[in-house]
Amino acid sequence: MRVLFNSRAKHDYLSDALTLLSGWTREGEQIRRTLEIDDTQHAALTERVKVVADALRLRPEISRRSDSTQIRVGHGNGEPLTEGEVLLAARIEDAYRAVTES
Fold first, then answer.
1. Following DSSP, what letter does each residue of 3-71 receive, concatenated?
2. Which of 20, 24, 37, 94 fits as disulfide partner to 41, beta carbons 3.0 to 4.6 Å?
3. Could you say which residues form the signal peptide (predicted)?
4. Taking the model in full, what pTM does it have?
């Protein structure tokens, strides 16, 4: 059986999913995370994120500033956040744990 979700239910579902991602903040239709990692960890994280983002056909913004890495996921042009973008944020968290634990 197929269940149809209206846009309000979908929004609530994504909001609930975002609450499970600690450290991520929502800015309009984008989500953002700042990670305190070194240059080597940044390079490893970027490679892992690229593989997942390519599979999901998404393009997060990843930038290096001083001693931190900033990540933005979402279009930011008025388009709503998608399930894929929230999934990407969760996979970025997995990659972050992997590069900081090794």
1. ----HHHHHHHHHHHHHTSTT-EEETTEEEEEE---HHHHHHHHHHHHHHHHHHT---EEEEETTEEEE
2. 37
3. none
4. 0.83
3-state secondary structure of 73: strand
Judge whether 52 and 95 are in contact, CB under 8 Å.
yes
Name the region of 83 (left: φ>0; alpha: ψ -120 to 50; beta: rest). Answer: alpha
What are the structural domains, with CATH classification, of the chain? 4-101 (3.30.1360.20)
